[in-house]
Amino acid sequence: MMIHRRALLAAAGLLVPATAFAQTAGPIKFRSSKGVEVEAERGVFEVPEDRRDPASRRIKLTYVRFASTAAKPGPPIIYLAGGPGGTGSGTAAGARFPIFMALREVSDVIAFDQRGTGLSNHIPPRPRQGGPPPPFTRDGLTAYFRAEFARAWTDWTSAGVAMRGYNTNESADDVDELRRHLGAERMHLWGISYGSHLGLAVLRRHGDKVDRVALASLEGQDQTVKRPARWDDYLRQVDRLMGADPAARAAVPDLLALMRRVHTRMEAEPVRTSMRQRTGGPIDVQIGGFAVQMLAGSLAANPETLALLPGLYQALDAGKTDVFAAFAGQMDGLLGIAGMPETMDLASGISPRKLALIEREAKSAVIGDALNFPMPHLLGVVPGVDLGEGFRSPFKIPNRSLLVAGSLDGRTVLAEQAEVAAQFRNKSQILVENAGHNVFEAHPQVQDLLLRFFRGETVPDTKLALPPPKFRLT
After folding, report:
1. Which end of the chain is less congested by CB atoms within 10 angstroms, N or C?
2. Residue 14's pLDDT is what?
């Protein structure tokens, strides 16, 4: 489990620049993470890096097409990965590979690497800065990221990278350009998390070219930064689940109180420990409560890792800091800056009213404002990138839509997803009880419902269920 999404993407190699790979279009053997090989096609098309700047360079964007097995395929199904920073091709090789294969019964399925990711990444990588790492406290990490991102922005723009072109509107226009490149009059959209955020931009800008849309773990236009109070409500839901387990309740009488105690103590007196790096020898780090809050937000995304949360806090409350050894590689990746994820989030931004609400709630919330670091902490480092209130405003969506959610999603909690779902006027909803953020592959029936939906069938509102997590205690 990674402490935040940038560490995850860097460790998975999903942010390696496209110049490191061949970008030849044509037939390929696509291999899943489990070794299954299928025939596919790699495609390449070009777009301006920033359509608002006539002087910006043109960049190549890539995708993998899995050809339909249908006699008369429907509109192509374009997959929109989460993150921002995840790749369609990387997702297709992983746990969702069976869904990509199943949907070929309806249409061509397109695993699209969005600008700045995978084989579509044209942002030079940043070398790790020398010297000791900053304290992993809120102040230490915020100061480090603000200074390092400002330096990175200067270096990238000096190298000719149109960094202001890395925003969700440009990416939405890329999706429509991909549709035209494929020779399709219309397209289906399939996405999750940030992919739903991107999907909303596609629907606003090119909704007349979209047929059906299936989105999960919804992130709204003004939800780049999540509400801390809503996450407290989620933790109370988790605490109630623990109350149904006598052993868990006896070991942890009050989960929220335990977490607050650990955060407060460690932020005031960071723990000094030595951690291995993915490259190089061990380094000495100071881990404060803020880093633990970030780790908690990551663990809570899905039930498999949520189950580790009480035991982690038990150990830290007892002073057993050797528990960090299991997360050494993740914390090593914490300091990485990739360019695309940070700039996309800055451009999507946050409304002044929402920012004031976040700041007010963070003062008393268990998670503080750590859940979406480094947002809003990077605000103001690069002026003039925010897409504005027109981008973040809600709108009515008439397209036929299927919305999928997990009741234990700790990244995009149900209460916030409900705000997004209210914009869809022609929707069906699937709720998977005890599933988390990665809900598409959580329950076997979700794949069948997706297939029926993209076939053109009417899918009714559906509730599915999984067993609750079994909490692991020290």
Report:
1. C
2. 45
